[in-house]
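Cross-posting from the modeling subforum.

Setting up a comparison between two proteins and wanted a second pair of eyes on the formatting. Protein 1 (sequence, then structure tokens):
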Amino acid sequence: MSNAHQNRRTMLLTWEYGSVGGGLGRAMQWIADECRAAGMNLIVVSPFPGADVRIFRFLRFHGAHLVFSLLLPFALRSIVKREHITRILVPVCPGGVFLLRWPKGVSVHAIVDHLYVQQCRSVPGEWWKRVFIPFERHMLMRAAQVTCVSPDTRDAVMHFYGVPSDVFVPFVFSDAPSVPKEPGSCLCVSRLTARKGIPVLLRAWEKVHAAFPSARLCLIGDGRDKRLLDRLSPAVRASIDHRLHLPYAEVLALYDRSDIILCPSHLEGFSLFCGGGMSRGAAPIASDADGLTFFIEHGRNGLLVPTGDAEALAFTILSLLHDPMRTRMLGEQARASIRMRFSPERAREALLKTIIER
């Protein structure tokens, strides 16, 4: 890193950080750790533990990230002045921060997981989020630089807003020696929401249980669609091991033991769950949606199903449950493809080009 880049004081301004929230928090922590390891002069500003500067710690409710964005103007200027900040890295759009104004003399580098305009078009019942599109457009048009977490998101940013951007992988997937899988074990780690396809998954699982009663689904996550579990029959509910939260080390152990990972989302930016499960040798079944097709070549290292189609999802799950050899082959190919495409060296090289040296 050049002396000019080392002397520049950068702020990573984020709502989610570390183990708090979903994959975005872990991705932001990885970015911070790698930037510092490369010599970047960086501080993290967030409400959550692990940040160098913690602001608005009282925000602990659904939708609080929007309140966080509204309150930022009251704190940002003083932090920028006190810490001598010249550049702000900020995840924007869904799950991120709306930074509509920022102090003069500061450049903003926007990091995009996915877009509100994609959610409005792709996710059932989320048409109302179009109210956020003007703010999304304003942020992306004003940012000095935009970096996306996948080619799918980059293409959407250009298509809908005409803003050029580059791409980097926001995480390094951990590798581990292959361990025996538990036959008939399926895993889904996700927020329990419509965007993540949880209603579709549960409808599909009812059909899977009827045809293959010994199959087991481990479902990790919380969200408003948790209530759908209570509507299942007792027999189907008993086949699902639901846990609200697990430490990341225990999630990795579940990756190792699971035969199949299920990714039924209507939309992703960069699915850490899909990539993480593949890296540990689980066979992925995923929707043919943005942020998932990026990982999977259908029939080679996983299987894709039409987004929102519970019948197709159930049929595909059953096809692997009835064919352990194919499941094992897909899992091995999944592991190999992640190792080849998302090596630590490649991820760090992309981070250096797109964020650290800019």
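Protein 2 (same layout):
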Amino acid sequence: MEIDFRKLKAYLIDENDQEADQYDIKRQDLTKEGEPLPKEWSPMKDDENVKIVELKASAAQYKTVEQHVKNTQGNVQIKKILRIQNKTLYQQYAVKKRDLEHHNPKGHTNELQLFHGTGAVAVPQINENGFNRSYCGVNGTMYGKGVYFHKMASYSVGYAKPPDGNNNHHLYLARVLVGVSTPANSSMAVLPIKSGSRPFDSAVHGDIYVIFHDTQAYPEYLIIF
């Protein structure tokens, strides 16, 4: 077979070096394809980057998130749960996840589901642009100048303020790439070097994790209570 990339044609050659058949071919730029999106996402248009989907209370995802809140002592009355479908943020996160899996020890837990409470005013920015470190300091920097997440909903609920005009409070259940962590401290603005020239992936204090790289967290679900 011979391929003419200029004409985007493939020619099937017989044993006598004669053209037996030809086919149209399609050039595909794999660098633009990005990471595959989650199968459970609702369909999105090609030119649609962000879609907010309200989960039905009867849906399996809703029940899973609801149970996770209950299991971590989040004693709140959930009004609704939204799934954040952001193509750009998800693909950036997926690339970073592969990077951590490549560099960290095989079998190491690089990813956790963690909570992040926030005021209503920050929600549109987070849905569109993710957890940005420029927001840090709003609720203190006791464990470094990064973005804070917690294993327990009961802790993060305390930071889900102020509410919006309808008295709705906002709590994210995010996927966070904690990787290999180092002890957190209040003066930490960047992570120290772990080995060679590669820094640690996050800082930790008890059940609090702090990340310093914006692509290391994806706002998967928004819980409104």
